[in-house]
Amino acid sequence: MKKIYTLAATLLLVACAPKESLDKNSVLTDPVVAKTALDTYIYNQFQKPYNIIVSYNYVDADFEQNKYLYPPTESKVQPMLEIVKKVWIDAYKAAAGANFMKEVAPRQISLIGGYNVNSSGTITLGFADSGMKITLFNVDQLDTHDHDATRRYFHTIQHEYCHIINQKKPYSEKYGKITPSGYTANWYNVQDADAYAAGFITPYSMLNDMEDFAEMTSTMLSMSRTEWDAKVNAISSTTGKAAIRKKEAFIVDYFKSEWGIDFYMLQEIVETQMQSVLQ
Predict the structure, then answer these.
(1) Within 13 Å of residue 67, how many CA atoms lie on the same side as its CB?
(2) Percentages helix, strand, coil for the chain, rounded to the nearest 5?
(3) What residues have CB less than 8 Å from 101, skipping those under 6 apart?
(4) Which of 95, 130, 145 is the last residue of a domain?
(5) Which of 137, 188, 220, 265 is such that its CA lies 20 to 30 A from the CA of 95?
(6) Are the C-beta atoms of 214 and 162 separated by less than 8 Å?
């Protein structure tokens, strides 16, 4: 600690000395980093139009130290971002107008190459941080030939973005009162059929009302309206089905009243964009 304070004092004296200046060989000169083609793509497609910084170089301090995480393979970054832009950003732009993503967007997207495995055995595919940052894991494994896996991946993106939307304009507490007794910290022990019967669209939506809202929204945006209706209509529990339909109506109303977005139109645009990238 003493060495640190001594160094700080020395730098202060140099800075205050009259007529002192750093020459071109100073170790404090900012390093010049060449901009790659990928950096140019990110700037033109994300940063310039939407003020979204994309980080694909792993920064150790940004993540938990007990996790084995690593940066994505650079050749995987742009193909993934092109799909992210088309299925997520362009879809909202078409449904909500050109300014929506400029006003309601994370300031940073952070990319990680592999899985984020939790101590419970579950896997985190992404998370939103204080409405400012979305982190996406498993970038290296994205394969548009695997339709189910690709839809799950973009389910995660829509889920995390829903949290940011909700932070900008919170939904009514009435949503959490639709199925108040069903929330549980042990959601990962619940089977799909049991979640449906309790009025939840996924087991994870049983964690709390915020995750419930985001899971409902992202599940609806992971399929066409026809597929969604078929999924809900197939639920055998009458009470469970009714609760999910009530949550659906709540979400549709929220997007319309708070954001002026026709949610069913957004759903169909997202599906069209998704179909165009699946191989």
Answers:
(1) 22
(2) 60, 5, 35
(3) 50, 89, 92, 93
(4) 145
(5) 137
(6) yes
Token readout for 152 is 């799950």
Q: Which two tokens stand for residue 120?
A: 């419970």
Phi, psi (rounded to 5 degrees) for 147: -65, -45
For residue range 55-91, what is the model confidence (pLDDT) as tens digits?
888 665 565 555 667 788 899 999 989 999 999 999 9
pLDDT tens-digit map of 20-50: 454 555 454 454 455 899 999 999 999 999 9
Give dist(CA 132, CA 30) in Å, integer.
27
Dihedral Cα 106, 107, 112, 117, nearest 10 deg: -50
Rounded CA separation 75/63 (Å): 23
C-alpha to C-alpha distance for 64 and 103, rounded to whole angstroms: 30
Please, are residues 269 and 225 in contact by the beta-carbon 8 Å criterion? no
First to last CA, the chain: 58
Last residue of a domain, one of 130, 145, 160: 145
Q: Is residue 12 part of a domain?
A: no
Residue 157 burial by Cβ neighbours in a 10 Å radius (0-12, 13-18, 19+): buried
Domain that holds residue 130: 33-145
Give the integer Cα–Cα distance in Å for 279 and 273: 12
Under 8 Å between Cβ of 120 and 53: no
The pTM for the full model equals 0.80
Q: Which helix (H) or strand (E) is 49 found in, with range? A: helix 48-50
Which residues face 134 on adjacent strands? 109, 128
- How many structural domains is the chain composed of? 2
Phi first, then psi: what are they for 207, rounded to 5°?
-65, -50
